[in-house]
Structures are given as C-alpha cells and as structure tokens.
Design a protein that fits this description.
The chain is of the alpha+beta class. Helices cover about 55% and strands about 15% of the residues.
Length: about 650
Amino acid sequence: MMQKTTVVRGGRLGRCTFAAAVALLSVTGCRSPQDYREEADATSRAYLDAAQMEVSGRTEKFDIETPADTLRRRLMLDQRLYANDPASFGIRDIPTNRYWRADERLMPGGDDPSISVWKGGTNAIEIGLVDSVRIAAFNSPEYRSRKETLFKAALDMDLEDDAFRSIFSGELDANMSIQRDPQEEDAIHNHSVSHQESASLGVSRKFRNGVRVTGSIMANLAGMLTGNTKTAWGSSADLSISIPLMRGAGELVNTESLTQAQRSFIYEVRAFEQYKRQFICRIESAYLALVLAKRRQENQDEAFRRVIRSTRRSYRMAEASRMSQSDFEQAHQSELSSKASWIASCQSYESTKDSFKMTLGLPPDARIEPREGDLVELERYVGRFAELAPSEYDMGDGEGADGEKIVLDPPDSVDGGDLKARTDAAIAIAFSNRLDFATSRDELEDAQRRLLIAEDSLRAEVTVGARAANFADLADPGMRRNGERHGKVHPRDWTANPVLTVDLPIERRSERNAYRNALIAVEAAVRSYQQAEDELKSTIRGDMRSMNQTKDNLRIQFMAMNLAERRVRNQEILLQAGRADMTVMLEAQDSLVSAKNSLYAAMIDYKNQELALQRDLGLLEVSVNGTWKEADLVALGVIRAPRSPASDS
C-alpha cells in the first residue's frame, strides 16, 4: 500500500489550534519595537551609571541619538550649502522609502546645545574654544562612534549577566496530516486523518556556585482543544539538579566569564574617560592652530602694508634724489616677495580652517571664524608666566674687561632642584588619577585570577545530582471519568534517580599546558605593568621638561619681539631722516614679522603643553557633552606660580 502525506489547513481542529496560537502570540508579541528600544536603553544606561560611579564617582546622561536639530543641519540650510542627498542634513531628513520608515518615535533626541552659536542668516558664525569642543561633542563622527561603542559594550554586558538568571522557554506545536490510500476507490474512506498538538514550558537556572537546576513540563493538547475524547493526550514533567563538588565548584570558577566581562566593561569606561581628555586636547590644539594661522595671516597683512608704505616712500625719495635707484629697486623687489608671502598666508589660513571644520564634524564649506577674544585672553593668561625680570636679561659683552669667562647656568633639570620636586609631585598625581594606568594594575589581577581557575581545571571532577520525572498517559481506560479521559498527576507516578559523575584527573594534558601558560601570563602581566609604570613616568618627566622649556622660550620670544619692534621704529625714524640703509630696514621688518609669529606660536605651545600635562596627569574633568574643568596646577605644586611685578623689583 502506498501512502501519500499532505498537510491540510482548516477544520475545527485547525481553527482551535490557530486561535490558541494567536492568543499566545498576543500575550508575548504585543510589545512594539519602541518598547524594546526603550528597555534596551534603560538597561544600558543602568550599567553605564554603575560603571561611571565606580570609575569617576559621578554619573552623567549618556545619549547616543542624533539631536533633532544640529548645528551642521542649520548651517547647511541657512548658509545654503550644497548637499547631494537628504542624509547630509541628518537621519531625520531621510525620506520614507521601502527600506526606511521615518518614525520619530524610534529616533528621540533633544536639540544640539552647540546650536546656540548660530544666529541665523548666511553670514559666518564666530565660535570660541568652548564652542568648538561642544560642537565636536555633538557633530564629530569619531566622538559619536566612540560613544556608540561604549553603549554597545553595555548591551553586551547585559548578555553576560543573563547567564545567572532564570531562563524560561515555551513552545506550542500543532500539525495535521492526511494519509491517502490510492487503492481505495471511496473518496470518503480512502484517507485517514492524524493530528498532534503539544505544548511545553521549561525553566533553567545556573547558580553562581555551579549548581544547575532544570525543570520542564509538556502536554499533548489534542483532546483539550477539540474535546475529542477518542484522542489520546498526556502530560509529563521533568526536574533535574547537578552539584559539582570538586572541579568546577565554587563561585570563582563559575562566574569567571561574568567577572571578566564586568572588569572589561570597567576598562572600556576608563578608556572612554581618557579618550575624552585626549579629545579635548586635540580640539583645543586644532582651534589654537586656527587662531595662530589667523594671527600669522594678520601679521603678514600688516607686514605687507608696511612694505608697501616703505616702497612708496622709497619711490618718492628716489625721485627726489635722496635715495639711490638701486635701493628703491631692492624695496620694490621686497614688496613683490612680501605679496607672495601674504597670498600664501591667506591660502594657508583657509586650508587650516577647512581642516578644523572637518575635525568638528561640520561641512568644509560652512562659514565660520574663530573668536578674536580667545587670543586676547590667551595673551593675558600666558603673559603672567612670561614676566621679564630685568636681572635675567642684563646685557653684557660675554667677557669681562679682565678676561673673565662667562659661566652659563644650566637649565632646570627634572633630576635636581625645584623642578625635580615638582616632577615627583606630578608623577604621584598621575599614579593616583590616570585611569588607563589603573587598568594596567587590574589586568595583573586578572592574570592572577585566571591562574587560580587554571589550577581548578587540574582537579578531579565529582558532581552529584538527581533527576525526577512524571508521565501520565491518559489513554488508560482506568482513568476514565464521566465517559471522558482526564489527566491527573499523582506522587506515585514520579520516578527519581540519583546521579553521580566522576572524572579522575588521569588525562590532563591540555589542562596542564593551560596552567603553565597561565603562569607565563602572570609573568607577562607583571612586565606589562612595569612597562606601563615606566612609560607613565617618562611621559610626565617629558611633559615637565617641555613645560619648563616652553616657559623659557616664551620669555625669550617676548624679549625678541620687543627688540624687533624697537629696531623697526628706529629704522623708520632714520628712513624719514634720509639716513636709513634700505637693506637694514627690510631686514628689520622681516625680523619683526618672524618675531611676532614666533611669539604667538610660543604662547599656543605653552597653552597646549599645559593642557596636555593635565591630560597626562588625569586631572581634566570632561563631560560627555564637551564641557571640561581644568585643575589648578599651581596649587598642586606642579608648576611654579607666575611672577608678580613685586617680585621683580
């Protein structure tokens, strides 16, 4: 007899089964994607809050959504910048298509705080240092990617933590088949119908000490759903427990995966905190580089105008026979050279500005300008550390009248004197505050913990447990009641079996090698920690040397600019009197431009170095939204207090 099996839809049984499935899905599937998103966000933020409190002693709101309106979007719209696709404005401007549904509920987000610098219109906006950092915090692709990476790490942490929760499972299966007999001619009797409906519910739980408990219950639902008393249905239950006594026993071994995940997440939070400090320094350095490029361009403007005035004056003097034609031609040649330098400085400033805008995450064709007041504040701040003591710059001949040789005092050294004391204080501060250095120390503890777990793998495995099961087959006629079959679970129907598993440590070759590798890893972790400590010391010593050198260079550049200005004024007086040498005049003007550029470069170098020192000391407090607070290095004894006018007298 040949049989052919086909699936049939419909019928009373199919409708009942379908109704039950729909009822189950309505309970478990009524949550919207937005509900799941909000649950994931709340879970991730809970882990982040706990980790931030442990790392820095404070928590802050951590959002990864793009704000509803950004400075980039405002600039592109109001300054009428070219855009090739709506995605250039932001995620909320992407139109709905077959792959994308523009649903605001799935993309919550407030406004970009840095948008406050925008005043509307097509004119260029003026931004300062504080504005630049806040703009970058909400618009820089790199910074936002780092935030998203940390947020996803929190979600991964949730999966690791899930291993020690009660895990529930449920399943509902329903199917029907018809078996046809091709040799039977009667269309009504040539087939037989079979169907099966079953449901199962289970729960499992692994405890931190290694004990595992698993339970399940299953039922055949054919009779319950259809009321067909001829259909056999039954139920069964299963409960098992296992308890390791030697190998694999204890919380240390069983929670290693979770412990390492928790510590790795802390390391990620520390790394992000250090990244924020580096990010602040990089944005500050880029902004000050833009300010320096603008000031150099302004210095070149001033120098070009001064050369033009000198050339015109030289022309009039040559016409009046008060200057030789050769000197006038030299002045004219200098004007052409100055014009080329002026054009180059203008182009360099524009290029630096485009690069800076890209660093902030703004379009390169956006119109922005650095705030002029920031350079004035920088001059005032840095000038405190460059007060000139007349005794330091006492002019001499280099050799006394009696032939006495001049003895040069060596600069301060990090290995002696006042600078050494300040360097030692800085190193102690760095050891206490650098988060990445704390991670190096904790990684040594990780290696030690993994060594203990490798030792546990060498032990014998002895696990005790038990299993209990129940099965009631309700097809038994003895269980009829009122003409129908009903299931009833009775204690006498349960069967229990003890379980003992023993694995003697006869073959432990791979575990032996893993243990030896763990010992090597501890040695490597010690060396890694030593290297991190030495590198941190070297970094701080280098920062202190650079700070000291930058401060001395700043004083020298102040003096050089004063001398250059005095020299130009003297040459202009001589030129007006007709007694100046044009070559000397041009050289003095070039020296003044060079001295001004060098001075502003020295001021910016000092500010960059001071902020870098605070970053390397771990003292910068940086928020996720791009605000920061600097430490008082003078009060901490890391840098010498600025000289007051009274101390120079």
